[in-house]
Amino acid sequence: MNYDTALIKPTAPPTFVSSASTDYETYQSDNPAIITVRDLRLTRGDFSLVVEKLIVGAGERVAMVGRNGSGKSLLLETLLGLRHPQTGQITLLGNSPDAFKSKPGLKHDIGALLQDVQFESNILIVEIVRMHRSLYRRVNPVILCLLGIDELLDRPYKALSRGQKQRVQLYLALAHEPSLVLLDEPTLGLDEAYAKALRDYWQAAAGAGRTLLMISHVPADLEKMDRLVCMAGGRVVDSGSLDTLINRHLGRYCGRILLPLSADLQKELETIAGIVHVIYGDHGDITLYGHGAFESDFRLFLMRQQITAFSLEPTGPGDLLAFLAGV
After folding, report:
1. Tens of pLDDT along 82-94?
2. Is domain 5-11+248-325 classified as CATH 3.30.70?
3. Start-end of CATH 3.40.50.300 domains in the chain
4. H helices of the chain, where?
5. pLDDT tens-place string over residues 33-52
6. CATH class for domain 33-240?
């Protein structure tokens, strides 16, 4: 459904905790911290990435979400040592990002997928696989089958579809079974069968103590995460489990009225108890989010006005993504 953002009318403005505070839900566990970021500042042109504190623990699965340009990919690149902040401290597995360049043995413990990875166009996939095996002391053949790489071995990289290229790049990030994996939109372009297999793998890997930090705007990916980190304007503005963030920003229920209402009925609708957020669509449809008494009061409103073109369902990860990331 297409919404004109000019028509979004929240009953209370959506708010985030200030980046100057860490009152939002942060990492709390007896497991050791695998990623630690403190007092980070990186300025590129008119954009500043400012992260006061971010901790990801061993075995944790964390997804960063936010609108395009919020700083997610820039933060991921900075963690990998591809960008150099003006100030701040970053440690991955107890080491600075630069240590992974100067100490070759550390590369076995980290895997990464970034966007727009390029290879020489005529290189065969079997050559890429052999190159990977020559660089790492361990390679799990299960990953080859999981991502269907065995069926691509004789093909040149340039002949692959977008989804097939993504599978090859994921293989390079995962096959050596790193302790820490950083992924930028890993399921983008994947067939659903491979995307589901990848999500199942994340769950098993987390159980084995491996840590995942990724960027994703795919609702099914978020359902498998332990925690979401919300970014806006180069800052971490909120953090919590999927359920926590849904309750905090939208409420448990999503009601939709699929036909236009008069101005008087719109005003009456907005007085329903428990409303958190109201969106007026560009075709006269109305979407409401709420909690508590919202469900029963919404049903009563529909009955009084004899409205039959509606839906009422639990708020899901797609709704949260639309709110946080505009997708």
Report:
1. 999 999 999 999 9
2. yes
3. 33-240
4. 72-79, 99-102, 125-135, 141-146, 162-174, 192-207, 219-222, 242-249, 263-269, 294-305, 317-325
5. 999 999 999 999 999 999 99
6. alpha beta
